[in-house]
Amino acid sequence: MKLYLNDTSPFARLILICALEYNIKEIELIWVDPWEMPTNLLAINPFSTVPVLQLDNGDVLYESSIIATYLTSNSTRHTLLEYQRFALGKMLIETAFRHVSLTRYSPENITPHPFIARTEQVLKQALNTLSEYDLPNFSAKEAPDLASLQLAVALDYLTFRLPNLVQSYLHPKVIERLSTFQLRHSFALTTPEILRVKSRYLSK
């Protein structure tokens, strides 16, 4: 299989972490910059977004939650609580990504886009409602469920991009619980600093 990705996408990182946690091997990594709309990415995904998973038979999947569910479907059965946690993590990532993008690419000397204030308000509310029980504990050898991985990736992305919000609005016990995920092998291997090396294959 081929996974199209870049080094700072939280959506692509979720797929890498799922592959590592569920021991899915032989994934070739194709590094692209989706903002430049490269032809090889557009040929399989007209939206020019990452991640994109191209299967061995040539079929293509894009949108991170679809890819993650496909990769882990043989290993997990999801409960309602897990679906809720998965949705929470997905909305956190998408809202944070929108906030960061709008802030970064806003022209200077103009009134800030109203969505910037709105996304920040939503993120504050969401972080403030999280409890330590939203991120369950797992042993070192046990693979967390997909919903917990999604939420942990979301919170880690917020820590990376919007650390002031995390420190101000996320409960210390949730930050402590997040640190146990950040120490997992799959998380350590997929930080932006590590991914900038841009290895060709995913391996444990």
TrEMBL record:
Ranges where the GST N-terminal domain occurs = 1-79
Xref: SUPFAM superfamilies? Thioredoxin-like (SSF52833)
Name the domain of life this protein comes from: Bacteria
**A Pfam family for this UniProt protein?**
GST_N_2
| GO CC aspect terms | cytoplasm
Task: Give start-end ranges for the coiled-coil region(s).
Answer: none
Protein name in the entry: Glutathione S-transferase N-terminal domain-containing protein
In which organism is this protein found?
Answer: Iningainema tapete BLCC-T55
What lineage is on file?
A: Bacteria, Bacillati, Cyanobacteriota, Cyanophyceae, Nostocales
